[in-house]
């Protein structure tokens, strides 16, 4: 641990703060976190954390989810500008119009949405819980927003339901191509290809394993294979390389970087735990209560 990391650990104890980190954060941030996980794991943890303050190292919708579930806590995001571009793609007015067009469909929203958008949704899902939740959902007609790539993946896993998609998605994952996969497989013929379902269907179709960030990391850790091409944000390549130096991990593309996730540095985490910087999340109480229903439903259907 370096001096900054040691100071963070000391201060978070003194200030009754807990640090949650998404897997796309840098490795030095993961090392000082109380919990590291994918979007589903972070939501589960948020509801249970005993601390007064929560510092969410990730992007804004993740911090909003924490505040929605734990309104009595002070929730901070170290960098105010760390937002997920996908979360801004669909606004309340657009979704209201879609709901009017498909009045008999239940609205399922990827958790990468704003708190305001969640107020109009029946249930949220994450990449690791979407298939399970949609299978269990008491509805055969579904409007899935906003990620059409994750939606396409779910549609293929749950063909018995009618799932309408809208055009939206993650700019970081959507730019990965099937040609890049073919080239990477040629360069590393013994490697398994692990991919996030936010990638385009043509890329997902070439995968040996499809899963969320945590699921990809668990799969690589448990596999008896030693080479992997990673089709998700490149921090996962770094974490896996550090945690399993006996194995080889290749990024599918050097450009698979989420600049919003990379905005937060270990120094920002220190300054937030010191109380010098950091942005405190606030949500209107009516909006919070409405948005909470869709997250509670996600935790209910996704947990057992
Ligand atoms: P998961 O954490 O569910 O794998 O999602 C990845 C992501 O892009 C979060 O923004
Ligand atoms: Fe949003 Fe994509 Fe970045 Fe995840 S990786 S935070 S979905 S832009």
Task: Map the helices and strands.
Layout: H1 3-14, E1 17-22, H2 27-32, E2 35-37, H3 39-48, E3 53-57, H4 60-69, E4 74-77, H5 92-101, E5 106-110, H6 115-118, E6 123-125, H7 130-136, E7 141-145, H8 148-157, E8 162-165, H9 171-174, H10 178-187, E9 192-195, H11 201-204, E10 209-210, H12 213-222, E11 227-231, H13 235-243, E12 248-251, H14 266-274, E13 279-280, H15 285-303
Parallel strand pairs: 1-2, 1-3, 3-4, 5-6, 5-7, 7-8, 9-10, 9-11, 11-12
Antiparallel strand pairs: 4-13
This protein binds 1,3-dihydroxyacetonephosphate and iron/sulfur cluster.
What does this structure look like?
The protein is of the alpha/beta class and 304 residues long. It contains 15 helices and 13 strands. It has 3 domains: 3-84 and 261-282, Rossmann fold (3-Layer(aba) Sandwich), CATH 3.40.50.10800; 92-170 and 287-303, NadA-like (Rossmann fold, 3-Layer(aba) Sandwich), CATH 3.40.50; 176-251, 3-Layer(aba) Sandwich (Rossmann fold), CATH 3.40.50.10800. Helix content is 44%, strand content 17%. The chain has a 5-stranded mixed beta sheet, sandwiched between helices. β9 (192-195), α11 and β10 (209-210) form a beta-alpha-beta unit. α1 runs parallel beside α14, α3 (39-48) runs parallel beside α4 (60-69) and α4 (60-69) crosses α15. It is globular, with a radius of gyration of 19 Å. 46% of the residues are buried. 1,3-dihydroxyacetonephosphate (13P) binds at residues 38-39, 84, 112, 126-128, 170, 198, 212-213.
